[in-house]
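Q: How would the structure tokens look for this protein?
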Amino acid sequence: MQPTCLEGKERKAGRGLASIRRLTVLGLAAALGTAGFLAVGSIASSATGTTATVSLHTTKLGKVLVNSKGHTLYLFEKDRNAKSACSGKCAQYWPPLLSRGKPSAGPGVKASMLGTTRRSNGSLQVTYNKHPLYTFALDKSAGQTNGEGSSNFGAKRYAVSSRERRSSKRQPQPRLPRQPRAPATRKHPAGRPALPPGDPPYASPIVCSSTRRHGTTYAIL
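A: Here is the predicted structure in token form.
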């Protein structure tokens, strides 16, 4: 039995609707993919796409360097030659201070000591006096210094001051006064105890008598 003209038209119409649905789905997927890509790009650019500002903030350690949110900036003693030795899990606990270009200096901060170093992922990390700078994940509010002296990930962390390599100074150890030396003693033969210099050679008084024989005097001890 041959299909009628009406059935043929219905089949063609069904194929057309299916094509329209496929095109609609593909269009939505492309739109969502573009939106997701833009969202991820905006998040990444927000992390590294701003110019960092380094300022001073008064803490219990004194005046230390802070980021734009007032969070304390630390150095890592494992870093060498202005290169960061903190990545992966270390960078999760100690987020590096990133900048899009040369960072700006706030009041009291020496702009000549600010710089950047290239991290392994290509981002720019801010340095001060050639020391890469980090914040600490457990510093939840401005001015906290919970990371001071921490030794996790292989080396110590110290908050950085504007003038020195680290904020904490080592207190000079007090010098103890010299103890006077005991005077040297002389050994004496015949089993007598040794006496300090200047004392007579014998502890007991010496009884001397003299006798004259043939014009010669002899001392009898």
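The radius of gyration is 43 Å.

The chain has two helices and ten strands.

Upvote if useful.
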